[in-house]
Amino acid sequence: MAKLSKRMAEVLKQVDRSKVYDPEEAVKLVKQTATAKFDETVELAARLGVDPKKQDQQVRGAVVLPHGTGKTARVLVFAKGDKAKEAEAAGADFVGDEDLIQKVMQGWMEFDVVVATPDMMGAVGRLGRILGPKGLMPNPKTGTVTFDVTRAVQEIKAGKIEYRVDKQGNVHAPIGKVSFSEEQLLDNLTALVDALQKAKPASAKGQYFRNVTVSSTMGPGVRVNVQKLVAAH
């Protein structure tokens, strides 16, 4: 085990690893223990009581965070004709069809979210092995395969994030920046937990939220009692 810096040792003292904190307290601690010189991202990590190997226990979707993520996503839209014009008008950063598919195939990756109209998916499918592993493949479940490109682009720009359970049953998603107020982080945390609760598969048995922590990029994980958030709704 590498020796902890004095600063980190002091920070860790503030967090009781065995304690599950109320959401308000957890958010406060995350802000207190974030001491990096940059505006750290605050992330939620949730271990869910699902078996991701089972098709009916996949947890995947998207939610618009009330206060965004603190970062404006660069949106790439695969569309043509009127839909391409619509995407540009809605504020998409990059719009195109075959030309952009070729560009991505050659290694260009200067974007954060990909949206495609359904009629483009046959061609976009060729990018599966490039976009798939990065979680960037457009998907109807997350609203990124749609003819309503205006709404898709505007929601992403407003702070829409995607979440999906990994092979271990964990979900990781950003809920803002350390510079956000405690209220903003709490609102975003509540919105995400709410979305995860609604996405609970009917076949999932037992406790659904097994372990939930919030942390900043360089800070320690703080365990959260999400039942308080779920109960409040």
Description:
By secondary structure, the chain is an alpha/beta fold. Helices cover 33% and strands 20% of the residues. It has nine helices and nine strands. Helix 2 (23-32) packs across helix 8 and helix 3 packs parallel to helix 7.
Task: Give a quick account of the main beta sheet: strands, pairing sense, barrel closure.
Answer: 4 strands, antiparallel
List segments where confidence is low: pLDDT < 50 over at least 5 consecutive residues.
Answer: none
Please bin the fraction of helical residues: 25-40%
Inertia-based shape: globular
Q: Tally the beta strands.
A: 9
Give the count of helical stretches. 9
Radius of gyration: 19 Å
Strand fraction: 15-25%
Q: Based on helices, strands and strand pairing, what is the structural class? A: alpha/beta
| Distance linking N and C termini | 42 Å
* Average predicted local confidence, pLDDT: 91
Order of helices and strands: HHEEEHEHEHHHEEHEEH
Q: Taking strands numbered 1, 2, ... along the chain, how are they ordered across the largest sheet?
A: 7-1-8-9
